[in-house]
Write a structure and sequence with these properties.
single chain, alpha+beta, Rossmann fold, Isoleucyl-tRNA Synthetase, domain 2, 5 domains, four-stranded antiparallel beta sheet, elongated
């Protein structure tokens, strides 16, 4: 156990380091771990709560068993893989039944020949139509022989004939399944030590989907089989009950109770097929009870750890009853869990149906494991009754010991210390089974949310992969409903899995595993984080070099936006009044208000892909390609103290503050770097970290829907001018847009008025613009989406100012600066530092 603890701690440290490098926020000095003393004490307290509520019981049921790991496995520990199984059609001699079937055999089909020695019954469907037929001819090499009289479901007759290579037959009997009520068969290995009667029992699980319409029943190796025999045994005297036992031991090896097969194994310790299947088939051939044989490739349960195939095997285990009622409850655990599913928000919504179907169909929860490492099911069993001791005082002493010493106390302490003076240790046996790790994870809400005063229960959100509908989400739901009659969460969000660039599941054998740490080393953590947030997390997503190159381009655009903002923020924007803002400035503040609302809504809806897309589009289209482009002249060329320039700086300050807060959860390191630079701090001084700053809400006063509608029209008109200039640039008629002073014709009088007051030349980044009312002359440039606006190109007149690069007729107006326009000359005169612009 000490070695296991050290091994686990090593990987905790490794994973913590990787999470930190990815920029994941967490209380890394005090993480929640199921192996801490406090957690182990809390877990055992939860086990005791389930016991006190009357939901925990010990029973013998078939469970998924790994012969490699020698332990039972929970549903969540099982994965299904393609597997080749041997199949057999076996004849059971009918010794008592319909008179017309004298001398006939009931044929069953199974994919687990090794369970035939464990057979104790044959199940039939009461409403199924059956036929009796005699083989008159069979193909060479067939196990079926002429003269064989067998019974199968009518709907499966043709398939059975084909599988058994029967080439000719005659039907001699037809009837309903009810005809087999009270019928008895001999075991197919009768005379070889299997001389007990095999009753025929009606079973609701019998169908005509595959097989023969009869079901081989080995109650020690199948859930439906176990249920059928448990119902048969109910109310019967002990000596008339059908025994329920496993034919194999913990290693998957036949026990001495099974003649001719003792020592044969189902699977080897490497998970390969053992000798049992072939051994049973040979015995059936020798006994002339094999009607046909074959093989099938199908989905078969495997251990998620060893990847070895599993068997169903009845063993004494501890279970939580799904259809039992907790003390004081008027509903069963299953009903409570289903109700709690409906009370929970599922993102995406399809997750609700998935987990609901699992809860509706799942068997009782087997929570015991035969292992050395983990939290023990710390109970005492009365040696006379076999019942667990329910004593809150004993439970309290166990909890206190675990809290002080950890679960090792269950092994190191004298059991009398736990039992106290009211019970004698000689009368009780300690339970040393280990609790299912999924029970541990399912109890995290107890020692994380409830035992930490800074947190609350239930959780606002549980977040994990879509496979956790049968794992963590599932076990947490059942554990909490069993102890608190509610779910431990208000909402559950599930994500898909990462595939390689071609859409294949990553596998070491395929050599297509993408190591996130290598990606971080190559691209940086923020690009990996940005890629994650830009994906539709509800689906499986692809990753590769090309994918990340695209993300890196998006990242560079966002980083460029931060660089532009930081280069422009010089502290001169403080104290600016609303009336000093231009229409364009107010429009950008309005867009900030709109986007802030979108960001908050998307966060509430866990739609991070849309959140990041909205912010990126704002950066690329409305800032870089529009506002920043237009404002360059104001920032670089207006006097530092001018109202116009100060207004722009004021708006950019607001833009930076919101942008940095919006993107901080995504670009963790970039936003921290930008924020500290903005504050004039270094990474050594984290008192004003962006991650400690509350995201400010955009001022409602910024909202101006009417102004936004106006600027949408102005931007559309700008697009026509830009399009016209691009044509002339392609014709080599001009270079920079400041060489132009186009004529713009506007048919709509209201739009013309808007353009006239907008400073349209600055908006279009031209040295001048002549606005005209009415229709344009023939040959003017127009564009779809901006009807009524036309452009005729014209070169700007005057000389080029060497500071702002505009063409003006007042260049040299300030004598000291003969190559500057009047505005630039005055700006430099007022503040010589402006010459650097």
């Amino acid at each position: 156990r000490a070695e296991c603890r050290a091994f686990a701690q090593h990987w905790v440290d490794v994973q913590a380091g990787e999470f930190k490098r990815l920029g994941v926020t967490g209380d890394w000095k005090n993480p929640y771990l199921t192996m801490t003393k406090a957690a182990e004490a809390s877990i055992v307290r939860e086990i005791h709560k389930v016991l006190q509520n009357g939901l925990l019981y010990k029973g013998a049921k078939p469970v998924m068993w790994s012969v490699v790991e020698k332990t039972a496995l929970a549903e969540a520990e099982v994965e299904y893989q393609e597997h080749k199984s041997l199949t057999v059609w076996v004849k059971f001699p009918l010794q008592k039944g319909p008179a017309e079937l004298a001398g006939a055999h009931i044929v069953i089909w199974t994919t687990t020949p090794w369970t035939i020695p464990a057979n104790r019954a044959v199940a039939f469907g009461g409403n199924i139509d059956y036929v009796g037929f005699e083989v008159t001819e069979a193909a060479e090499g067939a196990q079926a022989k002429a003269g064989d009289k067998v019974v199968v479901a009518a709907a499966l007759l043709e398939q059975v004939l084909k599988d058994a290579k029967v080439t000719a037959h005659t039907v001699f009997w037809q009837g309903k399944g009810d005809a087999f009520t009270g019928a008895l068969c001999h075991h197919p290995l009768h005379g070889l030590g299997y001389d007990f009667d095999v009753p025929m029992l009606a079973g609701e699980h019998v169908t005509t989907d595959a097989g023969t319409g009869f079901v081989h029943t080995a109650p020690g190796h199948g859930h439906d089989d176990w249920v059928l025999i448990m119902n048969y045994n109910a109310g019967r005297e002990a000596d008339k009950r059908i025994p329920i036992e496993s034919a194999v031991d913990d290693n998957g090896v036949y026990t001495e109770k099974h003649p001719h097969f003792a020592g044969m194994d189902v699977f080897t310790q490497k998970g390969e097929m053992g000798t049992a299947n072939v051994g049973v088939i040979k015995a059936l051939v020798a006994a002339e009870r094999l009607f046909a044989k074959g093989s099938v490739r199908h989905e078969y349960p495997h251990s998620w750890r060893s990847k070895a195939p599993l068997i169903h095997r009845v063993t004494p285990q501890w279970f939580i009853g799904m259809d039992d009622k907790a003390a004081g409850s008027d509903v069963t655990l299953r009903q409570q869990a289903l109700k709690s599913i409906g009370d929970t928000r599922w993102v995406p919504a399809m997750g609700e149906n998935r987990i609901r179907a699992m809860i509706e169909q799942r068997p009782d929860w087997c929570i015991s494991r035969q292992r050395s490492w983990g939290v023990p099911i710390a109970l005492f069993l009365d040696r006379k009754t076999g019942q667990p001791l329910k004593d809150p005082a004993v439970d309290k002493r166990i909890y206190d010991a675990f809290a002080a010493e950890g679960s090792d106390a269950w092994w190191s302490r004298n059991p009398q210390e736990f039992l106290g003076n009211d019970h004698n240790a000689e009368d009780y046996a300690q339970v040393f089974d280990i609790v299912d790790v999924w029970f541990e994870s399912g109890a995290t809400h107890a020692f994380v949310l409830e035992d930490r005063p800074e947190l609350q229960s239930p959780a606002d959100l549980y977040l994990e992969g879509s496979d956790q509908h049968r794992g963590w989400f599932h076990s947490s739901l059942l554990e909490s409903c069993a102890t608190r009659s509610r779910a431990p969460y208000k909402a559950v969000l599930t994500h898909g899995f990462v595939l390689d660039e071609k859409g294949y599941k990553m596998s070491k054998s395929l050599g297509n595993v993408v190591d996130p740490q290598k990606l971080v080393d190559e691209y940086g953590a923020d690009i990996v984080r940005l890629w994650t947030m830009l994906c539709d997390y509800a689906q499986d997503i692809r990753i590769g070099q090309n994918t990340l190159k695209t993300t890196a381009d998006i990242y560079r655009r966002i980083r460029g936006t931060f660089c532009y903002l930081l280069g422009s923020l010089d502290g001169t924007g403080d104290g600016v009044k609303t009336e000093d803002l231009s229409g364009l400035d107010k429009y950008i503040l309005h867009r900030l208000w709109e986007i802030d609302a979108e960001v908050r809504r998307n966060i509430q809806e866990y739609n991070f892909q849309n959140m990041v897309t909205v912010v990126h589009n704002f950066c690329a289209r409305e800032l870089s390609a529009f506002y920043f482009d237009i404002c360059k002249d104001t920032l670089y060329c207006e006097a530092v103290s001018s109202k116009k320039r100060r207004a722009v700086v004021h708006v950019l300050d607001r833009v930076f503050t919101h942008l940095c807060h919006w993107l901080a959860p995504v670009l963790t390191f970039t936003c921290e770097e930008a924020w500290l630079s903005y504050k004039g701090l270094t990474l050594d001084d984290m008192k004003e970290s962006i991650h400690l700053s509350v995201m400010p809400k955009a001022d409602d006063a910024w909202r101006n829907d009417a102004l936004a509608a106006e600027w949408d029209k102005i931007a559309a008109a700008r697009g026509v001018v830009t399009g016209a200039l691009e044509v002339k640039r392609a014709e080599k008629a001009m270079g920079a847009s400041l060489e132009a002073a186009p004529h713009v014709y506007v048919a709509d009088a209201a739009l013309l008025a808007l353009l006239q007051k907008s400073g349209f030349a600055d908006v279009c980044i031209t040295s001048g613009i002549a606005l005209h009312a009415g229709a344009a002359p023939e040959g003017a440039f127009t564009a779809a989406g901006a009807e009524g606006v036309a452009v005729v190109f014209a070169k700007a007149e005057g000389e080029k100012c060497l500071r702002c690069w505009k063409y003006t007729t007042d260049t040299g107006a300030v004598a000291a600066h003969p190559h500057l326009c009047k505005r630039c000359g005055e700006a430099v005169e007022a503040d010589p530092r402006a010459a650097a612009a």
